[in-house]
Structure prediction request, 627 residues.
Amino acid sequence: MKFVGVFLAVVGWLIPVVALTYTQSLGTRFVLTIVGIAISLVGILFVLNQAHLKHVIWKQ
Amino acid sequence: MMGSFTRKTGYSLLAAGLLLFCGHGAWGQAQTTPPASTPAAVTPAAATPPSMDTPLDVKAANPPSTDDLIKGDPGGTKTGTVSDIVVSDPKKGLTLADTVNQVGQNRIAINFVWTLITGFLVMFMQAGFAIVETGLCRAKNANHTMMMNFMVYSLGLFAFWVCGFAIQMGGGAPYATLGGANPLNSEHVLNLFGKTWGVWGTHGFFLTQAGSYDVGVMVLFLFQMVFMDTALTIVTGSAAERWKYVAFAVSSVFMGALTYPLFANWAWGGGWLSQLGANFGLGHGYCDFAGSGVVHAVGGLTALALSMIIGPRIGKYTRDGKPNAIPGHDIVLVLTGCFILAFGWFGFNPGSTLAASGNGALRISSVAVNTMLAGATGSFGAIFYMWIRYGKPDASMTGNGLLAGLVAITAPSGFVNSISSAIIGLVAGILVCISVEFVDRVLKVDDPVGAISVHGANGIWGVISVGLFADGTSNYGGSWNGVNGSVTGLFYGDASQLLAQLIGVGTLIGFVFSFSYVANVVIDLVVGQRSDPAEELAGLDIPEMGALGYPEFVLKPEGVGSAMAAD
Prediction:
C-alpha cells in the first residue's frame, strides 16, 4: 500500500503537467490540476499514511 | 529685509525651478515616448554626445579643499564628493567614463550590501528555529534538538556548496541586480511535447567550476544558502525527540544537495515552473517571491514524509489512538524564538528583491510592511481561534500563528498590497490551528512543533494567495520570469496566474513529497531513522549526544498524557 500511495502522489502531479501540453483551454487545465492535486493528497494523506499507521508504535 | 529677499529670491528660484522641471519633463518624455509626427521645424538638432574620456572640470563641482577636510566634517557635507570618485588614469584626471562607471558600481554595491545584510538576517533565523524547536520539546531532549539545529547549518552549507547551488542556480543568469553573475548560464533542459523544460543547472559546482569564482555569484550563493538552510531546519522540528542523529545528518545533506535545489531551480533558477508563463501562457509562470513554496512547503512536506516514516513519539498516542498533549519545556524560549524569526523575516522577504537600487527595488518598503502585517494578523487569527475554541489564548499556538502568517506572506509579499497581506496572514493564523488538529487527530502524525502545519500547509496557502491577491502594481525591471508586465492574480483579472500557482502546488505535493519520502525510506533502510525506544524514553541527550542539555535540572520520569490531553 505504501507503493500505491507514492504512485498516486506522482500520478497526481503528472496529470496537470501532461495536461499543459494537450489542451489550451484554461478551464480544462484548471479542472485537471485540481483533480491531480486531489489524487496526490488522497495518495499521501490516506493511502500512504494508513499503510504507516498499520504498524505504528502505539499499536505494538 | 529678510522678508523682501526671501520673496524676490523665492519667486526667481520658483521660476527657474519650473523651467528646469519642464525641461526635464520634456527630456524624459522624449526618451520614452517620441512623438509620432513632430514638425521638422521644432525638431531639436541631435547634440553630439561628449566623449567618454573627456576630462571633467572637477573644480566646477566645488570639491572641499584639503584644509577643509583637515578640520573634520561634523555636518557630513564634505564627505562623499567628486574627490571620492576613483580616477582610472591620474594623468587625464576625472573623466566622464570614470563618473559613469562609478554610478554603475554604486548601484551594484548598494544591491550587494543589501543582499548580503538581509542574508545575514536570514542566517540568524537559525537561532530562532533552534530555540523555538528546543522550547517545544522536553528538557530531556534539549541538547539533541539544539545540536540538530546547530549542525544542520554546516551540513546544509557543505552540501549546497558542493552541488546544491549549481543545481539550483547554475542556469539562471543573468541576475541583473547583482551585476549579472553571468557564469551561471547553463541549464540542462529536456525537450518534451515541443517545449523546453529546464530541470537543473550545471554551472557553479564548488563555487569554482565554469568561471563561478565571481563576486556576484558569491553574493547569490550566500543569500540562497541561508534560504536552503531554513528549509532543512524545518524538518528537525517535526522529527524531534526520536530522530537518530546520524540519520538526521545523512538526510539533511541529501536535502541540501538535491531535494531543495531541484524544486528551487524549477521556481527560481530558470526551470520549467518559472517558464509556465513564457511557454504556456500561464500568467508570469510560477511566482514565489521569497519562498512560501520553495523554502517552507518543501521543508514542511519533507517534514511530513519523515514524520510518517519514523512514526510518533512513544506516549504521544494511547493504545486506542487518542492523542496526548506533550507540552514543551520552555515557552519563554518558544516565544523569544518566534520574535527572532519575525526579525529575520525582514531579511527573508525584502531581501528577495536582491536589490535596493533600480529595477523597482524600492518596493522593499512595501514588502517589509506586508511582512510585519501578515505576521501580526497571523497571531491574531491563532489567538482568537484558540481562545474561542478552548477558552484560553494558547501561547505556543499564538507563536505558531505569527510564524504561519509570515510563512504565508513570503510568496506574495512582493506582489500584494497591505490589505491583502492582512487577509493572507489572518487566514494563515486560523489555518495553522485547524491543520495542527487535523495532523494530530485525523492523520495521527506526530509533529512536536507544528512544522507540517506552519510551513507545509501555510507554505501552500502562500503560493495560492499569489494567484489570488497579486495586484499588478509591482514592476521589478518591467517583467517577471521573462513575461512583460506585473504579476496579477485572479481578483485583479488574471486567472491564468492562479493556475500557474496551482501547478506549483501540485508539484510540491506530488513530486517534492514523493522524492523526499523515497529518499528517506532508503536512508531508513541503510542507517535507520528511528532512535532506540529505551533511549527515547530516557531522553536522547545522553544516548545520542553524551551530555544533558540541563545537567543541574531534575527531570520528571515521564509526563505524557497527564495534564493537557488534546481532546
